[in-house]
Amino acid sequence: xxxxxxxxxxxxxxxxxxxxxxxxxxxxxxxxxxxxxxxxxxxxxxxxxxxxxxxxxxxxxxxxxxxxxxxxxxxxxxxxxxxxxxxxxxxxxxxxxxxxxxxxxxxxxxxxxxxxxxxxxxxxxxxxxxxxxxxxxxxxxxxxxxxxxxxxxxxxxxxxxxxxxxxxxxxxxxx
Length: 175
Known about the structure:
This protein is α+β, with helices and mostly antiparallel strands. It contains 4 helices and 8 strands; from the N terminus they run H-E-E-H-E-E-E-E-E-E-H-H.
């Protein structure tokens, strides 16, 4: 029994982590972190240039101190770079629970901000941003939101060059 206790504890923790309020979360796992722009483009099922138009409280998962509140961030699609065209994309983000922001979640979105988003399908009609998948566009320049090798390679790049590069990779043409 003593030898099986760590296995049992591991199984319980795994099951608890996989559940959200007594049900299994429907969102697929995020996968590996991309090492370059072509990998990031390939990993995303949808890539858009869009503007934040609204932020609403979204679903809740878990219970007690482990409960998470999500925000549904409504993005008006200005330009689709990969995937099915949508007029509005709903991006799910864990709501900040105070002044701390993790690199996995990133800073909260603000209405009016304009971003390039690399997305995967989330729960229901929502989408989730991939690791290294959020790039703010300000003054014609790319500003990565979060660390990583892709972020480092495009920081300060002209937005039109960045977008053309994404489109070329999405079409199967090397940059």
